[in-house]
TrEMBL record:
Its main location: cytoplasm. It comes from Helopsaltes ochotensis (Middendorff's grasshopper-warbler). SUPFAM superfamilies: Immunoglobulin. Keywords: Cytoplasm, Disulfide bond, Phosphoprotein. This is OBSCN protein. The keyword Lipoprotein does not apply. GO terms for cellular component: cytoplasm.
Amino acid sequence: EPDVTIVSGLKDVAVSEGDDVTFRCQVSHENARDVEWKLQDVALQNNEMNEISVEKGKIHTLTLRKVTEQDIGTVTFRVGPHTSTA
């Protein structure tokens, strides 16, 4: 299996309380396995507050819905040994 790397990393975002915010990270290969999103070192799951998806096979997205002050912190995207933070 090829080593999947991060081609385009996360970018810092400022957002108002109650808004949705989306983070994108592009990887080098489609169907990347061993992918993880974290907020403040807590692994995120796909649910009504966090929408995790993949666009065009290589662009991994995380949308945090209706953010609050508790959501302030570092978002981390990891694929294999590679990470990107914002």
